[in-house]
Amino acid sequence: MKLKDKTAVITGGARGIGLAIARAYAEEGARLVIADIDQGAIDEALATLKGEGHGNERLLGVRLDVCDRAAIDDMVQRAVEQFGGIDILVNNAALFDMAPVLEVTEASYDKQFGVNVKGLFFTLQAVAKAMVERGRGGQIINMASQAGRRGEALVSMYCATKAAVISLTQSCALDLIRHGIRVNAIAPGVVDTPMWEEVDALFARYEGRPLGEKKRLVGEAVPYGRMGRPADYAGPAVFLASDDSEYVVAQTLNVDGGNWMS
C-alpha cells in the first residue's frame, strides 16, 4: 500500500499504459481520477476497476481533452472537490503520427505538439498550482519516449514532441522541487498497445511493407526479446509516485527492454 489514500490523476488513463498504471495505483491504495478523451473507454475502465474490487467512492472518471485549457481546469477542480486534493499526476495522454519530412502537414504538426507538449505542460501547470496551494507537495510523472532520445526519419514531429517532454521534465522539476513537487518522466520503448496497429499500418504505407512486418521486426530488435507490454510500466510508475523515489528528481527513466542506454 505504497500509495495509500493518495489521489492520482492519470491522463489517457482509460486504455493501454494509462490503464495499467491506474490498476497498479489502485492496488497500492490510491484514489483515481481517470481522465481520457474517450468517454466510452472511461466507462469501460471504471467498470473494470470496480470489478476488481476498487470501490466507486475511490474512482472518478472525467472526459478530458488536454488541448482545452478550461477542461483541464475543470478536471482539476472536480478532483479537488471530490478527493480534497491531488498528490500524483501521470501525464500520459499523447498521440502519434508519421510522414516523411517533405510530407509533414501543418495540421499534423499542430495536433502532435498540441497534445504531446502543450496539453502535457498545461495539465502539469494546473495540477502543480493545486499542489502548491495545498502545501503538501506531490509527484508528477510525464510519459516521454525513446523517440525523444533520437531522431527517426519518418517520425520527425513525434520525436521532437517527446524530446520536448524530456526537456520540460527537467526544467519543471528544477522549478517545482522547492515546493516539494518531484517531476520525473518514463521513456517507453516500443509497446504492444492497440495504437501499434495504426503505427504498423503507417510503416507499411511509407516503407512498402506487408501489414504486421514492422511490428514483428521492432519486437525482435529489442534486446530483451519482445515489445513492451502496458504492465511493464506499472512498477516504474509506482516507484516514481512513492516515497521509494524520494531523492529522484528531473530524471527520465528508460523502460524499453534495453533499446536505449543512458
Treating each run of at least 4 consecutive H or I residues as one helix, how many helices?
8
CATH topology of the largest domain: Rossmann fold
Could you state the order of secondary-structure elements as H and E? EHEHEHEHEHEHHHE
Low-confidence stretches: none
In short:
The chain has 262 residues and is of the alpha/beta class.
Structural write-up:
This protein has 262 residues and is α/β, with parallel strands linked by helices. It has 2 domains: 7-189 and 229-254, NAD(P)-binding Rossmann-like Domain (Rossmann fold, 3-Layer(aba) Sandwich), CATH 3.40.50.720; 192-227, no CATH class. Helix content is 46%, strand content 15%. The chain has a 7-stranded parallel beta sheet with strand order 3-2-1-4-5-6-7, sandwiched between helices. Strand 2, helix 2 (39-51) and strand 3 form a beta-alpha-beta unit. Helix 3 (69-83) runs parallel beside helix 4 (106-134) and helix 4 (106-134) packs parallel to helix 5 (156-176).
Question: What attributes characterize this protein structure?
Answer:
262 residues, alpha/beta, Rossmann fold, seven-stranded parallel sheet, 8 helices
Give a topology summary.
Blueprint (H helix, E strand, L loop, with lengths): L6 E5 L4 H12 L3 E6 L2 H13 L7 E5 L5 H15 L4 E4 L14 H29 L3 E6 L12 H21 L4 E8 L6 H13 L5 H9 L12 H8 L10 E4 L7
Parallel strand pairs: 1-2, 1-4, 2-3, 4-5, 5-6, 6-7
Enzyme class: oxidoreductase
Organism: Halomonas lysinitropha
Protein name: Sorbitol dehydrogenase
